[in-house]
Design goal:
- There is one protein chain.
- The chain is an alpha+beta fold and 322 residues long.
- Helix content is 24%, strand content 30%.
- It has seven helices and 14 strands.
- A hairpin with a 5-residue loop joins strand 3 and strand 4.
- It catalyses: [protein]-peptidylproline (omega=180) = [protein]-peptidylproline (omega=0).
């Protein structure tokens, strides 16, 4: 991990020894960790940044809401007119390219002007944003139409570079995950790597079937706090440990049409019967490929742990069980 990222994460997780914050606009307080002395961000500019947002809850003094490092996806941020004094835009205008800082913002004001509800179980009314400005595209005196074209080219170039990097490091990510977890994998001709922990019964699902399964999907890298980097799960305990638990989700075995799942998952499930358990490590070509989707970046390998609970044949109401 790069030194700059360590400094940012330390600040976001409350590990910095220095707690001297300056007073900004409105209720905002801030501390600048690093300043390169470059031109400050102005309204109308377009920035690429990495950041960590935390809040203090009754159960966790540094509950992470957003972490672009964990997501391996920087944010692109158009600097608009401030919605209220002391919002994030006003804080970013204190920085220039290469700068890093932490901002403490009022959650009531954020909720009022953004319409985004506050997280539940808060112990304090403050959100901390630890920001590293990677690049700045200054609007200057450009007409809106000209700057929009520049923004598009800027984003496309950055996105292409990110994808090329992901493509290059993908094999190393898979190898590192296998080694770190001491896995004895079998590699299928397709490139799928897997470990069957329990074969299940003799029944095998076909592409026209619906499968009832408990599962967890995660990235190969762990989060900065050491937790599994889970993006989806049917298990409430795992969701809570990974920080993605939602009161609106039912954490029960899911019924999913087998033919609509990623190719690597289809292959893995067809290797086990009901009662079977398998870990699958999907190269991106068997997952979401060069386009990605949702929280999944292009050229991202994925890990799925699946327990097959049942197979539902077409035109039947109940799953076949052991």
């Amino acid at each position: 991990m790069k030194k700059g990222i360590i400094i940012l994460l330390a600040a976001a997780l409350g590990l910095s020894a220095c707690n001297k914050f300056e007073k900004g606009e409105g209720d905002m307080t801030y501390k600048i960790y690093k300043s390169e002395g470059k031109p400050k961000i102005q309204e109308g500019d377009y920035v690429k940044l990495n950041g960590v947002q935390t809040v203090e809850t009754n159960n966790n003094p540094d509950s992470v809401m957003v972490n672009t490092y964990d997501n391996e996806r920087p944010a692109f941020f158009a600097i608009s007119k401030s919605m209220f004094k002391g919002d994030l835009a006003s804080g970013l205008k204190l920085l220039g390219e290469g700068d890093s800082a932490v901002f403490k913002l009022n959650l009531d004001s954020m909720e009022k002007y953004s319409g985004q509800p506050k997280p539940k179980g808060l112990k304090s009314n403050i959100a901390s944003f630890t920001i590293k400005i990677e690049k700045v595209l200054h609007k200057g005196k450009d007409a809106d139409s000209i700057f929009e074209a520049k923004k598009r080219l800027f984003f496309e170039a950055e996105y292409k570079a990110l994808n090329e990097k992901n493509k290059t490091v993908e094999p190393a990510k898979i190898a590192k995950y296998v080694e770190a977890n001491n896995l004895k994998v079998t590699t299928a001709p397709s490139g799928l790597q897997y470990v069957i922990y329990a074969p299940g019964n003799s029944e095998r699902a076909t592409l026209t079937d619906t499968v009832l399964m408990d599962y967890t999907g995660q990235f190969t890298n762990k989060k900065s706090n050491g937790a599994l980097n889970v993006f989806d799960t049917s298990n409430a305990k795992i969701a809570k440990e990974a920080g993605i638990f939602s009161e609106n989700v039912q954490y029960v075995p899911r019924s999913l049409p087998l033919g609509q799942l990623p190719q690597g998952v289809i292959q893995g499930i067809q290797m086990i019967g009901v009662g079977g358990k398998i870990k699958m490590i999907l190269p991106s070509k068997l997952g979401f490929g060069e386009n990605g989707g949702g929280p999944i970046n292009p050229f991202t390998p994925l890990v799925f742990d699946v327990e097959l609970k049942g197979i539902i044949k077409p035109n039947t109401a109940a799953p076949l069980a052991k």
